[in-house]
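Note on ligand handling. Small-molecule inputs were canonicalized before submission; formal charges were left as drawn, and no protonation-state enumeration was performed. Where a ligand contained multiple stereocentres, the stereochemistry in the source SMILES was retained. For nicotinamide-adenine-dinucleotide, this procedure yielded the string shown in the input block below.
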Amino acid sequence: MNVLDLFRLTGQVAIVTGGAQNLGRQHALALAEAGADVAICDLLPEAGKQTCREIEALGRHAFFGQVDVTQTDQIDAFLEAAIKQLGPIDILVNNAAMPSEGCALETVDDNLWRKIIDTNLSSIFYFSKRVARHMIATKRPGRIINIASVNAVIISNILPRHNIAYCTAKAGVAHLTRGMAAEWAPYRIRVNAVAPGYIHTAQTAASAKYPEIVERITSNTPMKRYGRIDELKGAIVFLASEASSYATGSMVTVDGGHTIW
Ligand SMILES: NC(=O)c1ccc[n+]([C@@H]2O[C@H](COP(=O)([O-])OP(=O)(O)OC[C@H]3O[C@@H](n4cnc5c(N)ncnc54)[C@H](O)[C@@H]3O)[C@@H](O)[C@H]2O)c1
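Structure output:
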């Protein structure tokens, strides 16, 4: 097969969690541009429906569901509706997450810790388990992509605080990815992760207001800049498609070289 054809997702159905805005929106558009119909879920209905309109403008089908990814009853209802609307699921991108606590570790509220771990790590288990069962039952070769972070492998030393709950959750995402890859390889479900570095989005906008933080991030990054919001699209389509047919349990780092140093 021609190498460019390996990246095509024509006729496939994808789900993107947290797909309403920023990076999740970009993942959804990338999958649609490659040919997939896309269901997105998010807490934000207006932004979510707007992203659906953009997917439809590309000639694909789209579906939005308002879902809190920590609530398993909402996940069940969303999956049932998405499958009814778009058909059986081939691709799941676990992107939804919340930023971290931004305060000293010894002062982090216990409930906030639980919320970050539940939102950024456990939700990936809740979603993937259900989608994998569906893929196994429908005998489809599935692909699951988990959005980790450079903070899965390094503790950030750039912001005034190290955001340990976030880093811990993302390190869990990396290991959960390997575990799911091992468990589900016999069912032809491939599971990989993407580890973004600092990308210009709402999540990094707060820190970008402070020139000293921007300076620390750029000077600690060999490419000397933040990533653009569209610079993960290639990695997402690679891992979602036949172009990565022998990859499972891997983590693709897209960070301008940040984790080299
Ligand atoms: N922006 C970066 O520089 C960066 C770097 C490394 C990793 N990441 C990861 O990339 C992903 C997307 O990042 P982003 O910058 O676009 O973040 P973002 O906060 O802009 O978007 C996350 C989306 O998830 C949704 N969401 C949050 N909690 C949810 C919940 N409980 N249920 C359903 N939806 C929920 C939000 O509404 C939002 O639309 C995240 O997993 C993030 O950790 C981002």
